[in-house]
Structures are given as structure tokens and as C-alpha cells.
């Protein structure tokens, strides 16, 4: 067995093991940490497949931003563990049956007869001067430039949607309302009361 | 030499683990979102494997966009989750049944 196969099987073992630990862990924070391990294994597999840029992106964006967001939400919400795990095993048999059927069907399609080495031979490795980032950037900024800009708009929409959903008007402290200050009129501030002075004859 | 079939079977296994996770953790929305992430990673591994073996970079571009959409999905999903917790005091799926007839 050559080294590439050994590395592949070690990485696959950790990939599968950490994802199993993730779905069966009772603590949501632990599940997030196992998902981080899943992402690291996936990134290693992608580096084995010469997709260096995506592997680094997966670690930087997912482990660095998305998983930290998950951890923040879990710590902020203070979830009651006992209610969440009440029906832990209730649907496990059904889930296993469905997953087994899906796995069996996909194995029939994706087996070595269709996608083995004799059908898809392993491509030769690129030399040291090959830059995955350059190749991806050439594609991304020429052929796929409009989808790229659409992705930027999508992220902007996500930012606005997330802020709009969670933001609430805080009434716990005093703050300025600039528009009210600018639009103020004299009659809002000073009320002139006409007073009729009592005449001297009334005394 | 690792064949394309090995990579596809690996992502097949990860996909099914994510599927089981959705069944098992169906009361916890946070873990449900994490299982969806697991499924997306499996699909992305498929894309990267085909991109490598066919010598076509379009597969990696697809993974790029899938990552973008998944990040946006997680951001909005967690925002909705925070809102749900603020209004209901719980994020269990069982209490979000007010639309039930």
C-alpha cells in the first residue's frame, strides 16, 4: 500500500469518526467542536485532491467564522439539555433504515465498476510551479464573474437580513434622535400664554 | 493510487451520517443546522473529487458558491434561532407548532 492510500484512509477514518461523534454527542458545544474536526479532515482530503484554496477557505471561513458563530449562539441561548434529548433514540431505527437504503443505492451507482481506477485513471500530480489559486481566480474573474458578484450581493442580503431579524429598539438607555432635533419648531419648545393682567379697579 | 470511487464512497458515508443525524437530533435546531453542514461538506467533497479526476476547475468554482450560500444560510438560520428563543424561551422543535391546525 503506497503512502497516498495510507494518508487517505487515516483522514477518512477521522472524517467518519468525528462526524459520528458529532451527531451522537449530547452536548451541543461538543458537537460544534467535533464538527470543527470534521472540517479539518475534509480540508485535508481536499488538499489530497489538490484543491488547496478551497481547503484553506474551509478552515478560515468555516472554522474561523461559522463555527465560532455557532459557539456564540449556543453559549448565549443557555439551552436546557434535558428537554432537547428527551426523544434521542426515538427515531434512530427509522433513520438508520433510511440511511442504509440511501447508502446502498449510492454504492450501486458510485462503485468501482463505474468510477474505479480503470475507468477514471488517477491524474498526474501538478508540478511545484502550479498555483491552484491562480487557476481558480482566472475562472472566477472571467467565466464566472457575474455569479461571483451575485454571491457578493447574496452575502450582503444575508448581513442585512440577520441584523434586521435580531436587532431590537433598546429602550433601556436615553439616546438622541437627530431627525427630531433638526425638525423641531419654536412652538414645540416655548408655549406663549397670554395673561390678562387684573385691572386696578378690581382690587 | 486512490480511485475516484473511494472518494465518492467516503462522501456517500458522510452524507448518510448527516442524514442519520437529522433523524436523531430532530428536536435540536442547532444540531440540525450542523447536520446540514455535514451533508454540504459531503457534497462539496464530491465536487472536488470530480474536479480533480476530470481535470476541470469548474467543480471547485461550484464548491466556492456552495460555501458562500451555506455561510449565508447559517447566518440567517442562527438569527432566526435567536429570535425564536427570544419569543418562545426555547429552541425545541416541539414548541414551534403554532401553525398547526
Please supply descriptive tags for the structure shown above.
A: 203 residues, mainly alpha, Four Helix Bundle (Hemerythrin (Met), subunit A), B: 101 residues, 77% helix
Could you characterize what this model shows?
The complex is a heterodimer of chains A (203) and B (101). Among the domains of chain A are: 1-79, Four Helix Bundle (Hemerythrin (Met), subunit A) (Up-down Bundle), CATH 1.20.120; 129-165. In chain A, 68% of the residues lie in helices and 0% in strands. Chain A is built from ten helices and no strands. In chain A, helix 1 packs antiparallel against helix 2 and helix 2 (28-48) packs antiparallel against helix 3. The mean pLDDT of chain A is 87. With 203 residues, chain A is an all-alpha fold. The longest helix of chain A has 26 residues, at 52-77. Chain B has 101 residues and is an all-alpha fold. Chain B has a domain at 27-93. Helix content of chain B is 77%, strand content 0%. The interface between A and B is large, with 88 and 71 residues.
Please describe the topology of this protein.
The complex is a heterodimer of chains A (203) and B (101).
Chain A: H1 3-24, H2 28-48, H3 52-77, H4 81-84, H5 92-110, H6 112-115, H7 132-142, H8 145-166, H9 178-182, H10 186-189
Helix pairs in contact in A: 1-2, 2-3
Chain B: H1 4-24, H2 29-54, H3 58-88
C-alpha end-to-end distance of chain A: 120 Å
* Percent helix of chain B: over 70%
Q: What's the overall average pLDDT of chain A, rounded?
A: 87
Which chains share the greatest interface? A-B, 88 and 71 residues
CA-atom Rg of chain A in angstroms: 31 Å
Q: Would you identify the regions of chain A where 5 or more consecutive residues have pLDDT less than 50?
A: none
**N-to-C SSE string of chain A, H for helix and E for strand:** HHHHHHHHHH
Mean pLDDT of chain B: 89
Annotation field: number of helices of chain A: 10
N to C succession of SSEs of chain B: HHH
Structural class by helix and strand composition of chain A: mainly alpha
Secondary structural class of chain B: mainly alpha
| Percent in strands of chain B | under 5%
% residues in beta strands of chain A = under 5%
The separation of the N and C termini of chain B measures: 57 Å
- Tertiary shape of chain B: elongated
Amino acid at each position: 500500500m503506497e503512502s497516498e492510500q495510507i494518508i487517505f484512509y487515516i483522514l477518512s477514518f477521522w472524517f467518519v469518526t468525528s462526524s459520528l461523534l458529532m451527531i451522537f454527542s449530547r452536548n451541543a458545544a461538543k458537537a460544534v467542536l467535533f464538527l470543527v474536526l470534521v472540517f479539518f479532515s475534509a480540508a485535508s482530503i481536499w488538499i489530497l485532491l489538490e484543491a488547496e484554496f478551497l481547503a484553506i477557505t474551509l478552515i478560515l471561513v468555516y472554522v474561523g467564522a461559522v463555527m465560532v458563530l455557532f459557539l456564540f449562539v449556543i453559549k448565549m441561548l443557555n439551552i436546557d439539555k434535558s428537554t432537547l434529548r428527551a426523544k434521542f433514540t426515538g427515531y434512530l431505527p427509522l433513520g438508520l433504515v433510511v440511511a442504509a437504503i440511501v447508502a446502498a443505492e449510492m454504492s450501486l451507482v458510485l462503485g468501482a465498476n463505474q468510477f474505479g481506477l480503470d475507468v477514471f485513471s488517477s491524474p498526474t500530480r501538478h508540478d511545484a510551479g502550479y498555483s491552484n489559486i491562480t487557476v481558480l481566480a482566472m475562472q472566477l474573474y472571467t467565466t464566472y464573474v457575474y455569479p461571483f458578484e451575485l454571491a457578493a450581493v447574496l452575502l450582503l442580503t444575508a448581513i442585512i437580513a440577520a441584523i434586521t431579524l435580531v436587532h431590537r429598539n433598546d429602550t433601556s438607555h436615553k439616546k438622541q434622535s437627530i431627525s427630531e432635533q433638526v425638525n423641531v419648531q419654536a412652538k414645540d419648545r416655548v408655549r406663549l400664554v397670554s395673561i390678562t393682567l387684573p385691572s386696578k379697579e378690581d382690587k | 493510487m486512490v480511485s475516484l470511487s473511494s472518494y465518492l464512497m467516503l462522501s456517500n458515508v458522510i452524507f448518510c451520517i448527516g442524514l442519520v443525524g437529522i433523524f436523531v437530533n430532530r428536536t435540536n435546531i442547532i444540531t440540525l443546522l450542523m447536520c446540514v453542514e455535514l451533508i454540504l461538506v459531503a457534497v462539496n467533497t464530491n465536487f472536488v473529487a470530480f474536479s480533480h479526476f476530470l481535470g476541470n476547475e469548474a467543480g471547485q468554482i461550484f464548491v466556492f458558491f456552495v460555501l458562500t450560500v451555506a455561510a449565508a444560510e447559517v447566518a440567517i438560520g442562527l438569527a432566526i434561532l435567536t429570535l425564536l428563543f427570544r419569543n418562545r424561551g426555547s429552541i425545541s422543535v416541539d414548541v414551534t407548532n403554532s401553525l398547526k391546525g
